[in-house]
Amino acid sequence: MNSKQTILTHSSVIPDVQSEHDSRKLPIDRVGVKRLRYPIYFEDKFGAQPVVATCAADIMLVAEQKGTHMSRLVALFEEMSAVTQKKPLRVGGLQEWVTRLLDSLHAQNGAIELLFTLFMRKTAPISKIESTINYEVRLYAECKNGVYCEKVSVSVPVTSLCPCSKRISDYGAHNQRSVLTVSVVPKVPVFIADLVRVGEEEASSELFALLKRVDEKYVTEYAYDHPRFVEDLVRAMAQRLIDDPRFAGFSVEAENFESIHNHSAYAKIDFWQSL
Questions:
Q1: b/e 196-230 (16+ beta carbons within 10 angstroms → b)
Q2: Distance between CA atoms of residues 222 and 203, nearest Å
């Protein structure tokens, strides 16, 4: 018997334990893998770029089946990593991968999550010098009882300046860096860059990685002229998204890392009523 025949013979008797029957009659809502890291290509408004994504995938396991085939989940991300080198992933592009996930495991419900850092080039307001700044992105897609839904989230670092401090002080006002998180369920594909602008334009000031002195003067004075409470930040972002027909629902949140307190100020608005 040659080596190929030996392999085939051994494979034919290896039991598929995961597919065996389980007698406890308990379905599992979510079972899968997480914390996998894969290189993928992601395309947004300003082109495609390589990113390192932290990946997760899971399915609902029926009561009668003992276990799921974890290797198929890993294989899914192996394939995604290879495919996106030629066809970069975009917002709205996870639906075909969720379909593959369900087909490969004969499941009715399942989900995929990708977390990665997206880099964008920015131009300073006065000197026009360019630099790169990073934004944390989360893509989450699931199919449940035949209904597909994809949620897109991005965290946007900005500056916020306190309206109260400005009003009560003879000079100056306390300000701090803040992180605004915009999460949407899009009806149509959207750009991460557009969600970033929602946060940056409603803040006291946006951030830049590189500023010359003329730029620093500009952004400091701009922030002073645009004071925002944490409540102002979420309300302003929410109002913009309410008026945008591209979204079926959203949430917005803001965390201010206070410069004169040893705590953060926080606010959030959920607007998922239409889902």
A1: bbbbbebbbbbbbeebeeebeebbeeebeebbbbb
A2: 10
- Which domains, ranges and CATH numbers included, belong to the chain? 21-271 (3.10.270.10)
pLDDT in tens, 31-83: 999 999 999 999 999 999 999 999 999 998 877 777 678 899 999 999 999 99
d(CA 196, CA 165): 27
**What pLDDT is stored for residue 222 in this prediction?**
97
Residue identified by tokens 């996998």 is 36
Question: Helix crossing, 95-105 with 70-83: angle to 10°?
Answer: 150
